[in-house]
Every structure is written in C-alpha cells, then in structure tokens.
Write a structure and sequence with these properties.
This protein has 447 residues and is mainly α. 46% of the residues lie in helices and 7% in strands.
C-alpha cells in the first residue's frame, strides 16, 4: 500500500487463492496485481483499510511461510478438489517427523478436527556403499538419469523394492547389476509362460480350474499361486515391498522355473496340440501369466504391462488393455494335502539322480527311478512323477526299501521327446518314435 502497510485480509487472500487455482502459483511472479486481485472488491471487504486502491498496490516478495503452504497442500490438492480426504498415505524422509508430517497435521486438526492422512510412511536416505552421505562435491553421487539409461526403469524399481527402506540405503552400481540378474529371472519366466500360449485361445480352450485334479502338478501350482496372491496383497497393504519382491522372485525361480515349468514342458512341447493334458496345462499357464502381471505391476510396471498386453494379444496402438487398470481377482484353490510328502520324496529322488551322474547317467531322460510310496499315494501322483523328475520313467513300489535309479540307456529313445519309452519303435520314415509322439505328428500306426 502507498503508506507501506500490507493488505492481508480474508477476502484478499481468497482472491489470490482463486488466481492461483486458475493460473498456478507462479502467477504471483508473472501476473500483475490487477490480475491477481481480479476477484477482489475493496468496497465489499469489511476488513479492508481505508482508501485501498488495487491500482496502487505492489507485490511483496517476502516468504510468508513455506511450511504453512506445503502443510496445507492436503486442502488445495485434495479436499477442495474432492479427490479424497483424508488421504491414504503421506510419504517422506525420516527428517520430516517434525517437518511436513507435523506441519500438515496441525493445520488440518485446527481447520477440520481430523488428521489429513490415515497413515504415514517414512524412509531413510541414500548413502554410498561405505555409508557416507552422497554428494556431487564428494564425487560419490549416482545420478538417477544415468542409472535409468544404463539399467532401465524396471531394474531400478526392482532394486528399490528389495530394500529395507526404513533405514539409510547403501547404493552402488554393483547392487543394480545384481538386481538386473534377478529381474531377468522374473522376465524370462514370463517369457516362457507367454511363449507356450501362441496357439491358445483362452476364451474357447480354457478348462475350469476348479475341476483340475488336486493331485496333479497343475493342482499343486494353483494352490501355490493362491497362497502367493494372498501373501503379496497382504504385504502390499503393509507397504512391505521387500517381502513382495522376495515372494514373487521365489515363486518365479523355485515354484515355476525349477518345478512347474520344467514338469509341464514335455507335454507343452510334445503332446498332441489339442490333447486334454496340454490344454489343461495351457489354461494354468495363462492364469499364472495373468496373475503374475497384476501382482508385479506396482514394482515393474513397464514389464508387467508389456507382458499383459502380449497375453491378451493387444496391438501396439490399442489402448483397450492395460494391467494398471485391472483389479486382482479373488482366487482360491486347495491341492491334495499329500503333496508335502510327495515333494519330500521328489527332493530325495533328485539327490539320487545327482549321485547317479557319477555312475554315468548324465541325462535324466536315460533313467528310471523306483520310489517307495505308501499305498494311499501309489496312484495319486503317478501320472506326473516322471515329468516332476525329468526322467523317462518312474515306478512306485509300496514295499521298496529306498529310492533306486536304473540306467535305461540301452533301450530305444524316441527321436522327438527323447524319452526311453517302452512304446518306442522304428517307424516307416526310419526314425524312432513313441506312440504318443507318433500320434501327435499323425503317424499313429507303426511301420
């Protein structure tokens, strides 16, 4: 004001607030006073000093209170726009307990009687691998843009998800190298699942998952998926991203790559294309891929969405499918409770196969495994035992004293599936095929 006083009344502040709403806060620096006070009428302001003339006012550039401005962002950004109040989460560094968190809480309590947030999450700060503060002057800083260019956004996010973020975080390029290796295991698992669905139409060919035999490998992996989904969603709710990452990685690395994918690879590759066993496996593979994409989406959003679009065969310019717009569907399945005992037997059999390498059986498909089994389990898992171990044949014997590995290398091998199957014979084209492979290629009758 001409006399050096300040114009600061509720009405003038509201007028500037309207200008900020329409023009942005930078308008204080870019717009004239008349534009900032376009909604202000001194004559209608009972608190205005005498003789106020908007044309004579000048802006002051003193800082009012940066903490009050950021501490009332809940009102400007959320409450006034009806986007949700109180907000779900305030996220900041551990130095903000007496900063933004506290100075957001106090105005909200005073103005509304409620906290502006329902939960608060704090994190530590990045330091170098020796625990020193990172800075450009200290020549130990890692630039985010450089890390993105070198490793990609999803590898960087995958690394972040592995951290105990409540404490200070050590950063070094070798950590991103390791993160890249585990990320690629997950990506390659998705690639395997997708690559086995090229001839699969989910709408026309899917089997009812509820009707799958609980004693089959398909039943086993469905229960594992149901358990994974429950664990991951609960961990997301608690912001336990490290637990999410570990659960997803272990599922891809152990449950899928080391067990299920290895077990069903033979039927996916060698069964007749329309065989019930293959279509059932593809139904499970399709469901696994969809569920994994959704569970991975918050952590590796680009990989998850690319895989999800490939699963649904969405063209590049088609925006009708996006994993980030999909909800995780409720899913439950209970496998046969005897799977725990069967997996113990499998572990013991794999050790025997490993020892058999020293006796000259280097390829598991050259082996037969004899496994002692309780009477109740003799028929339950028999159909999948050979694939579970990656061998040509498994014989379950009720009264066997221990696991035995027999050498089948003297028996004829199928040229297509490489199994030493008792039905393998020489066919009319000069090759050797088992009955299953001969039927799959349309050569059902022996020569």
């Amino acid at each position: 004001m001409p006399d050096g006083g300040l114009l600061l009344t509720p009405a003038s502040v509201r007028a500037v607030g309207e200008a900020f709403r329409d023009l942005g806060s930078d308008s204080w620096f870019t717009e004239p006073v008349e534009r900032l006070l376009a909604a202000y009428d001194p004559a209608g302001d009972p608190d205005a000093p005498e003789g106020v003339d908007v044309a004579t006012l000048v802006k002051t550039y003193d800082i009012f209170d940066v903490w009050f401005e950021s501490g009332t962002s809940w009102n400007a950004a959320m409450r006034r726009r009806e986007l949700g109040f109180p907000v779900d989460l305030y996220l900041e560094g551990s130095d903000q307990h007496r900063g933004w968190f506290q100075l957001s809480l106090l105005p909200s309590l005073g103005a509304t009687g409620h906290s502006p947030f329902t939960s608060v999450l704090t994190h530590g700060f990045t330091v170098d691998k020796d625990g020193r503060k990172m800075s450009k002057s200290g020549d130990n800083a890692l630039m985010v843009d450089d890390l993105m260019d070198r490793y990609g956004a999803d590898v960087c996010r995958w690394w972040v998800s592995s951290l105990a973020f409540e404490n200070d975080i050590k950063v070094d390029t070798e950590f991103f190298e390791l993160a890249g290796e585990t990320y690629r295991k997950v990506r390659n698992t998705l690639r395997f699942l997708l690559s086995n669905l090229a001839d699969f139409d989910a709408a026309a060919m899917s089997v009812d998952l509820a009707g799958i035999n609980p004693s089959s490998v398909d039943g086993y992996v469905l229960e594992a998926l149901a358990n994974l989904q429950g664990e991951v969603l609960a961990a997301y709710d608690r912001y336990e991203f490290r637990r999410v990452k570990e659960a997803l990685y272990n599922f891809c690395n152990e449950t899928l790559s080391a067990f299920y994918c290895a077990a069903v690879k033979d039927r996916l590759y060698c069964d007749d294309a329309d065989s019930p066993r293959r279509r059932q496996a593809q139904s499970v593979v399709w469901w696994l891929a969809q569920a994994l994409c959704k569970l991975l989406a918050p952590i590796i959003p680009h990989t998850a969405d690319e895989a999800y679009r490939a699963l649904w065969r969405v063209a590049g310019d088609d925006t009708s499918r996006c994993v980030h717009l999909e909800a995780v569907e409720p899913f439950e399945y209970r496998a046969d409770p005897d799977w725990a005992q069967a997996m113990e037997q499998r572990t013991a059999a794999l050790k025997k196969l490993e020892h058999a390498k020293t006796a000259g059986i280097e390829n598991p498909l050259d082996a037969e495994v004899v496994i002692p089994a309780p009477k109740a389990m003799l028929s339950k898992f028999e159909a999948d035992w050979a694939d579970m171990l990656g061998v040509s044949r498994v014989t379950l014997v009720m009264d066997a004293e221990g696991i035995v590995v027999n050498d089948l290398s003297g028996q004829m091998r199928c040229d297509r599936c490489w199994k030493r199957d008792v039905t393998t014979i020489a066919r009319s084209d000069g090759g050797a095929l088992c009955d299953r492979c001969a039927e799959a290629i349309g050569l059902a009758e022996p020569a």
